[in-house]
Amino acid sequence: MLPNHPLLQMIQTVERLPGRSNQAVWSVKTATDHYIVKMVFDPTSRQYDREAELMIPKQGNVFHALPLATGRTTTSAYGIYPYLSGRTVRSVLQETPELAPRLGQETGRALRCIHVVTAPSKMASWRERCQAKHDRYRAAIDGLLEPTWIERLDRFILERLPLLAGRPNHLQHDDVHLDNLLVEDGHLAAFLDYGNHDYGDPWHDFVKCGLFQVETSPEFVRHLINGYFENQVPERFWQLYSLYMAMVVFSALVWAERFDAEGVEMMQRRVQWIIRDHDGFQREIPLWYET
């Protein structure tokens, strides 16, 4: 099942790991190294090649899980990644929640470093792509959200769409969450999983913090934002953040219905938390940030 590649010689142990539904993942130890091998069963996929092309500036001791090598077989495409040691932020905060301020600040500063990478020059504007994506989710929302809230969110989003004009096209990790961040010796050590990376407004990377992370550690997310902005969060950030959170109400529900039917009920609760935190979208700064 593993690809035949020069890095994968003198294999000592192989362990299958959990991964996305369309991807197989293995931990592979050789006589000299430890790798993570990811594979999709589509030989035309460029997922791993796109990750390998990323050139993220180094920042201290924070590493990024990018492929050392990529390749194809007749039935698959694969990427071979370095094994990065450490524990996830989620597991660390469960045992030592007092580390949330430090880890949040360190993650915010590292995320700002990721966001300096610019998009390919021929890419369409963020406004065009963001609005088109939202329109697709909006067209599929019927039956997943009360009509009253659909109308209210439509008005909120429409009023704020002009904010998208001129927003930069920079690298987005697009999956910043507590299980994609590694900690070692009490400090942020690595960002994992660039498989969903995109380009656009870098501030959009905070959406999944509001969707997933605040239920576990709002303190971590507060410090992540403060660290990113060196404790000087601009008003424009909250205007755009609240716009993106209103949009994510639609995308999260439609995504759950399509790909995670068992998780629709949980996603419905998360959406209600978002609406509550923004006081029915009468406020831009969420309650969890000011608490």
Topology, please?
Blueprint: E1 11-17, E2 24-30, E3 34-40, H1 47-52, E4 63-64, E5 69-72, E6 77-82, E7 87-88, H2 89-95, H3 100-114, H4 126-138, H5 147-160, E8 170-172, E9 181-184, E10 187-191, E11 198-200, H6 207-213, H7 218-228, H8 235-259, H9 264-277, H10 287-290
Parallel strand pairs: 4-10
Antiparallel strand pairs: 1-2, 2-3, 3-6, 5-6, 7-9, 8-11, 9-10
Helix pairs in contact: 3-7, 5-8, 8-9
Order of helices and strands: EEEHEEEEHHHHEEEEHHHHH
Strand residues, percent: 15-25%
Shape: globular
Kindly report the spatial arrangement of strands forming the biggest sheet: 1-2-3-6-5
Report the major sheet: 5 strands, antiparallel
Terminal Cα span: 51 Å
Classify the secondary structure makeup into a structural class. alpha+beta
User: What is the helix fraction of residues, given as a range?
Assistant: 25-40%
Mean pLDDT: 95
Count of alpha/pi helices:
10
What is the radius of gyration?
20 Å
Report low-confidence residues grouped into runs of 5 or more.
none
What is the count of β-strands?
Answer: 11
Mind explaining what this structure looks like?
There is one protein chain. The protein is an alpha+beta fold. The chain is built from ten helices and eleven strands. The chain has helices at residues 47-52, 89-95, 100-114, 126-138, 147-160, 207-213, 218-228, 235-259, 264-277, 287-290, and strands spanning 11-17, 24-30, 34-40, 63-64, 69-72, 77-82, 87-88, 170-172, 181-184, 187-191, 198-200. The strands form three sheets. The protein has a five-stranded antiparallel beta sheet.
